[in-house]
Amino acid sequence: MPVGPPLPERLLDCADPQTRQESLDRAADAVRAGRVVVLPTDTVYGVGADAFDVVAVAMLAAKHRGREMPPPVLVPNPRTVDGLAVDVPMYARILMRQFWPGPLTLVLRSQPSLQWDLGETNGTVALRMPDDEVALSLLAEVGPMAVTSANLTGRPAATTGQEALDQLGGAVAVYLDDGPRTGGLASTILDCTGEEPVVLRAGALRVEDVRAVLGTTRLRAPADGDEGPEPSTGETTATQSTRAGAETVAGTTGAEETGAQRNDAEEAAGDETRGTPTADLVGSVSPSGVTVPAGALRILGP
Q1: Whether 299 contacts 236, CB under 8 Å
Q2: How far is C-alpha 9 from the chain's CA centre?
Q3: Are the C-beta atoms of 96 and 78 separated by less than 8 Å?
Q4: Fewer CB within 10 A of the end CB, N or C, for the chain?
Q5: What is the CA 258 to chain-centroid distance, rounded?
């Protein structure tokens, strides 16, 4: 006995203004019932569920993902953020006002009282407001949704509802189709859990554009190249901190976006071309200015 309508009937047209609202209503009913739905975003198509429904979020395993790859949460407007995150820095609020809706994902400290389980997030949540009319309409009806790209791991990200249906099949209750989404670059991800934002991944939003609105707040990016974080080798660092984030909703090269854990290494000693090295104080985000005598530092092996 079938547990839902035949697959072709799950693909709902949102491109036609005459049928869009009916399609959105069916998708909203499915989300409220704890089901998984596919929706268009401003990059490619995503598959999502009610962020507060633990079972529904676990059903995102239809993509064969693990808890180590927690999904981001899409929100309908910036006002939603205060219900989901704590200790939101003023610079993060400035960035929301300037760049939301749009391709900017902010990693913030999660509200500890919330009854949700997005995976191994280390107490953080990655939030984004997508620049897509259909997505925002659905979010306005059902609230925050945990969303990831609509594809099986290792397969191309879906750019139409039909492509998502071909990959995910009966694992999804409703597919909202609003025509092709050609994608582009994935969203830029910033870690906003500290006093200064840190680029976790450079993407569609240019790092220089972010810097332009931050004023005196420093934006930390690897090697000043603004090309995204580089992995630490562990051989030239004295301290490391692990920051949790989440994958963005859609990869644009056809590959699934990676999860958001990152080792951010601060160099404790300069090389011979940079003069006298200085040490970083524990928890600092810039050199302390404390001179390090020659031979005072040792790099410990793993």
Answers
A1: yes
A2: 31
A3: yes
A4: N
A5: 9
